[in-house]
Amino acid sequence: MKETTKAIRIQTDRTQHGEHATPIFMTSSFTFQDAAEGQALFNNEIEGNIYARYSNPSVQEFIDKVCMLENMEAGFATASGMAAVFAGFAAHLQQGDHLVACQALFGSAHQIITQILTKWGISHTYLPSSATEEEWDAAVQENTKMVYLETPSNPGLEIVDLEMIGRIAKKHNLIYYVDNCFATPVIQKPGQFGANLIVHSATKFMDGQGRVLGGLICGTKELMEPVVFFCRHTGPAMSAFNAWILSKSLETLHLRMERHCSNAEKLAAALEGVEGVLKVNYPFSDSHPQSALAKKQMSSGGALVTFELDGGFERIVRFTQLLKIPSKTSNLGDSRTTITNPNTTTHSKVAPEIKADLGITEGLMRVSVGLEDIEDLIEDFKQAILGSK
Ligand SMILES: *Cc1c(COP(=O)(O)O)cnc(C)c1O
């Protein structure tokens, strides 16, 4: 079966009631037939649910679908994307270890790497997405344990060469950890390039309607074992309700991504050359410096478009006041178009020199293009840009 069919058809076994949709297993614990079964479950002699901090059928259905989409052996679902990102670091890194990462990262990932891991004696080297293979190679130290990156990045939509990093990871025997949130497994599968640990903020496109928080980390069985151990005992588990929402949403992920991406491509093209727009950034646009690389590793350009508006923050304020359809919110991956100014919101805490490197300027706007009619969106953006002069 194709993955589009499996994303719809993978389902928790039906109960004796024959329900069509999977029930939400709202229970904190699970019962044993007798004391012997309890003992066997706790000794890992048999598989089964014990306690919802460990596992839950609603959550497992969501995990199974994402593992299928990413072609990974095992996974764990968490209450948020950041809990999953952190679990990957915390389970695998220890005092004295070193991490090599692309600096074009989600704001909170920066905070973990620079403010939390450093507190525990875990050091890092940041490289720009433009770094060459030789530069990545040279950044690897004797104590380097992991390479971490995000592509396309938030908000710069910078592309990191997954195949090239795969060679570096293999050569130095590093854990190859990728945040695949922006692309989703529908348009990019990092595992094809050697990534063995993949993380998602399910809050974004996997939910697709801006309702719940969620995260998921998946990888090889071997690498997931310490992650599952860490999560089971520290407690970032996803709730059954959120898992039920997210698993249902995966049934339409392929369909939604198709429309998200085609709308984004059209909006990016329409914004090019509009008076007051200094620069438009979209991975599959010819004007994107890494469009060839993007086309090599992604099947479409994604749903995010950024552009830079001339005229400073006051212009941004006027523009957002005139813009009628998009929601002004920091979230993304919603069926409704959302827009934010990263410099003053999602990335406001990032150090100024790193911001400059990431192209986070005062006038940068990040758009997560939704599923609305594209003609309506283009018309609305144009009137708000021209009207805010
Ligand atoms: C949103 C986001 C996260 C964090 O996810 P939460 O669900 O908000 O915790 C991590 N990485 C990327 C790329 C994101 O966009």
General description of the model:
- This protein has helices spanning 3-9, 35-42, 57-70, 81-92, 107-116, 133-139, 162-171, 184-187, 221-234, 240-250, 253-271, 291-297, 312-322, 352-357, 374-387; strands at residues 74-78, 98-102, 123-127, 144-150, 175-179, 197-201, 215-219, 277-281, 304-309, 327-328, 338-340, 364-368.
- It is an alpha/beta fold and 389 residues long.
- It has two domains: 3-252, 3-Layer(aba) Sandwich (Aspartate Aminotransferase, domain 2); 253-387, Alpha-Beta Complex (Aspartate Aminotransferase, domain 1), CATH 3.90.1150.
- α11 packs parallel to α15.
- The chain starts with a helix and ends with a helix.
- It binds pyridoxal-5'-phosphate (PLP).
- Residues 80-82, 85, 106, 108, 150, 154, 179, 181-182, 201, 203-204, 213, 215 line the site of pyridoxal-5'-phosphate (PLP).
